[in-house]
Write a structure and sequence with these properties.
Blueprint (H helix, E strand, L loop, with lengths): L2 E8 L8 E6 L2 E8 L2 E6 L14 E2 L2 E3 L6 E3 L5 E3 L8 E2 L1 E4 L2 E7 L1
């Protein structure tokens, strides 16, 4: 199925170095601002289901607050255990001042 972009926030709503959780079709997605570039990942740690937005975003890495698993927000790759499975990522684009995230339609 082709992806459909959904407006989730205004670019000014998410300051650099911060995360905002948005809900798309009852799914929580963490939108991360890394130096003015936006990335979207599932807001769930693949290790134990912790909310990633509650952890620290340090440049491109986000850390789960429960057990310290770290993920690359650009690719979803695991950077530190105890997680071994990557987190899902979603395409992001900025149209004017609007941030849009692509989801399966």
């Amino acid at each position: 199925m082709p992806a459909k972009y959904v407006r989730v926030a205004k670019a000014g709503d998410i300051a650099p170095g911060t995360v905002k959780v948005v809900s798309i079709r009852d799914q929580e997605i963490a939108v991360c601002n890394v130096g003015g570039k936006f990335y979207a990942i599932d807001n769930v740690c693949t290790h134990d289901g912790g909310a990633l937005d509650q952890g620290d975003l340090d440049e491109e890495a986000i850390e789960c607050p429960r057990h310290g698993a770290r993920f690359d927000v650009r690719t979803g790759a695991v950077l530190a255990m105890p997680a071994v499975a990557p987190v899902a990522t979603y395409p992001v684009r900025v149209q004017g001042t609007e941030i849009e995230v692509a989801v399966e339609s």
